[in-house]
């Protein structure tokens, strides 16, 4: 746990957490394919515990969030933070400078690769909802690691295919809602649907409603009793987006020009991803963009270790998304390759 993260926090208000508890109760009764997998169950327990004690207002500083769904470029160890404090370090810490260099590089990639048209990226500036632990300002606009990751994915998409007609976007495993923030900030006609397991479906609901207003985002309390969740009806009711729980995906109806998944398929089991891909392909008319590990996540070797039972690898996506043709792939500029050989690859797919 980071000493620097032990900032002031407040107990959640009585109106905030009942939605989370309802989601969790319904998840326990959902079909197995829509419940947390081997990787996510222990992660979920830690996230829920901190949401219940600290509340969601500063969730981007929660240790569990920084570990599992709020990526950062560089995280200082407790000893580094203690040493900096003891020495009276003033200004940007060394690890923050290293993070800024990486963030500047990614910002430059997006600026160079982007072109006019949907999705609109050029004016995006991230909110400070959730009290981010790491955020950088370039050209007067705010960016986090999560935002720059998505912006690079979208830049490759726009560089590869014609995206001028992309209005409706579906995502599975959208973290705390970054993609929705990017899309809805830049286009008043965009509509975004995020499908996720709780507690992340709760977190992204909270985030997007804080950013765009409670009336703009349909959350689980709006859709829980619906037998059919119709995209056009949600639009007609004045919503700009929706956050659904995983077991609601089979109820979703409508046509989406784009589907996005960023690093969450790699945390699932192959049969779970295969089920999701079948449902997605029936809903998506044009494009898919994915970012996932080429070799998949680490297999858990012990009962108390966080990992997968069977990794989802590059060839699995080729098999699962059979109605789409892969038209671009990158693991160095728009994706990432570590010095240890780990490749997080961004791929763009076009419907056959």
From TrEMBL:
- Tell me which InterPro entries the record gives: Methyltran_NanM (IPR030807), SAM-dependent_MTases_sf (IPR029063)
Q: Which NCBIfam families match?
A: methyltran_NanM
What is the protein name given in its UniProt record? Sugar O-methyltransferase
Q: What organism is this sequence from?
A: Enhygromyxa salina
